[in-house]
Description:
The protein is mostly helical. It has helices at residues 2-11, 26-36, 41-53, 62-72, 76-80, 93-96. The longest helix is centred in the middle third of the chain and has 13 residues, at 41-53. The two termini are 35 Å apart. The model is unreliable at 90-113 (pLDDT under 50).
Amino acid sequence: MEEGVAEQAAAEGLTYKVDRPASNTFDLLRLVHLGAEYGLSGGYLRAMQAEVVSGNPDAFEHTTLIRTGEQLGIPAGEIRGHRNGRLLRRRNRCLRGPGRPGTAGRPAASGRN
């Protein structure tokens, strides 16, 4: 995306330079929702904004996401999930709802055509 914006700016004779880390924010947002279960979503979001604004090139790396969550008090086991030690592998209740497929903007699979 950033490359496309830079190309469009260059075509108009403008310089466009990204001076902050940019990456997929899916895991960050999942941790914001997980933090909500512990009353820490606002604090987590502020801490991650500070990581990005300060120019930390590793702001979106799992190590930073995990460290920030643990420092705020989100349980490490919840952050990492319980399957294969992968970050946020478990289904997050805040995103999908308790056993309700199709929540959070996802259509439920009905098997009908």
